[in-house]
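Hey, can you fold this?
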Amino acid sequence: MESTVSAAGLDIRRFGHDDLPQIRQTIIDLHATAAGSDRDDFKKKFPWFVDHWGGNPAFACVIAYDGDEAVGFAYGAPAAEGREWWREHLDEAPKEAVTFSYSELAVHPKLRKQGVADALSRALLEERPEDLAVLLVDVKHPRVQALYEGWGFRKVGERQPFPDSPLYAVMLADLPLSS
């Protein structure tokens, strides 16, 4: 079900699992534009990830529009309770540990460094009922990691989820995010 929020001078619309057929290609195309020539191998795999996450009945997505043009998105879904894989990186897990898995964020290159990533992240996570949010950031991108740290995420470990994937920083944040 689509709903709208205004942020960063953009129209940020909320979508769920049932909306995936209408937004799938928009997400894939915007991801390809945002990734540019980097990550060509992942761009080929990305539709599988969209379908995987979008197949979750609790899938949540926000897309930022500048007029009619999609210029950014963020999505994820709740983790299965009791199967929070990030726990292996902590000596002691928090007592309140229901987790939202923040899977993907992309912003069109022409709108980077204008607060769009922040607006999308906050729109995605602001009304989540979960206690925590978890995400992965390529360890070769310390500026991206610093961006998430500015929103209250902290690195708790490192993980390589697939043999052909990069090494990622595992980042965890309490919800709601800090201001």
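Oh, and this one too while you're at it.
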Amino acid sequence: MKNMQRGVFVSLKKHGDLRGCIGTIFPATDSVAKEIIRNAIEAGLNDPRFYEVEEEELMDIDFSVDVLTEPEVASKEDLNPSEYGVIVRHMGKTGLLLPDLEGVDTVEEQLSIALEKGNIDPDEDYTIQRFQVIRHKES
């Protein structure tokens, strides 16, 4: 278990609002522990949607960690946004959306957001993969 490799997403929330989220679909390090550390630092410092997390904010930030299962080829009918995350790909472009996100209730919403994140036109011939996560949250 100590040397298990997996993709990991780390999300930072401040007072319930997203403050940073960075992840890897496939592992970039040699263990889940190192992957979590790497992505937590990246989420706090390098998420392009947010300014860097300041030291005085740390006590107000809740962390969650999603450890991804191996992605598997899927069709639209195989998806369920509360159970599966989705990866869409087309000609070198990739969009990913984690499962069980607030406000994402249908497969159509899930695919639409993932396609937008990957800058993929919905009319293009894209591939779909699904995955599950083991979610760890601060309580």
